[in-house]
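Revision sheet: structure tokens.
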Amino acid sequence: MKKPSIKWLALTAVAGISLCISGVHMANASEVLYDDSNVSLTSAVDRYIATNDNPVANIVEGYQEETTEQSETLVAGIDDEAGTVNDNKPTATIEAVKQPEKATGSVKVNNITGEISKVDGSTEATTEEQAESTTEATTTETSYDNTSTDGFTYALAEPDFTGRAVVKATGTVNIRQSGDISASRVGDIAGGGIVKVEEKGSEWTKISSNGITGYMKNDYLLFDSDAASYAAGNLKKVVRINTASLRVRAAANENSETLSIVTEGSPYGIEEIGAGWTKISVDDSTSGYVRNDYIILDYTGPVAHVVTDPVVTTPSTSESTTESSGSTESSGITTPPSSNLGQEIANYAQQFVGNPYVYGGTSLTNGADCSGFVMTIYKNYGYSIPRTADVQGTVGTEVALSAVAPGDLIFYDRGTGSIKHVAMYIGNGQVVHASSSTTGIIISNMYYSTPCKAVRIVN
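Predicted:
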């Protein structure tokens, strides 16, 4: 049998290390359901070589490409017929193999930029590397650093207000069709709302929120650092998912039970920021852990809604029958409501976004839980519905999830077959609900968690 060559041993060692690295990243990727970011063996080897200064040369001391003469000498030292080593000693020897030195530093990951740099523990960094490390540490000085079990440190950067503004007012501010005080209103938004800046002007700024686009006076808007300061002191900090879909675990590790699936864009309450994992409130029925490298920090507050006078009978200008994608639900009616009262009720409900969640509460201003919130909303329009979510799911007319309209109630059972939470559909694939004590009344994607049924109260 031919003795393994020096090169073969060296490459085998590198392959083993690469497989370990690949295994770590594949395990990390298991948290994301709908993503193409799994790391291949080739990319893992490339990453290892790039960050360890050619580890092949470090694994085998004094390694050199063996010459034809050395190869032949090694073969000559073996008796092929007897299978034993000849008396003549080989003229070439295999150098002792050593493990690559362990890194003494850590890695900091910025979830927004994805940049990676060494930050501490390195004793051989060049002056240039030290300068880069100092810059990175400075830029994330106010972030939450959490060393996870895989040895990485994930930095949850503070919310970014680039391209956004905060509404500063004690009441509501009008959103107008054009930058003129006499222009017709297209909506309004309460103080503390966060809006997207479409076009900033000297006196009026074009903004958008909750599917409504119009103009607001700059006197009622805060930009950049002013917006960040106001939000830090007045708004609720939440988590948003930065991948399409993510598992919520029962414990802070990838082997624990999956409690729910959360989706990109929707806000989730923060219960605890821990070592590589953050405990979030999915809603008032479910809490669990998500990996820090798949989330970002943000704030939540009031959103814009269409201005609707309750005595006006003309149809609302807002879109009211947009269907949610991705549903295979076929039960329930599929026809739209016969009036726009559902949209009017949904618009009214959105006025209370930002108000607190209180278990057992029914107050739209001082606090309500999920079922108390929708019950009180409907009570103000003359409808009497049951107090609890599970019973609310038995009244009205069941609607196919693919055909929900504003005002319809959406129910969630966490896969148990028993209703745990209720929200109100408001259009554009969104719901308003008293979510949890960590978020209060918020607007979420209808599929922030998987719905089990929908009911229409208004016919």
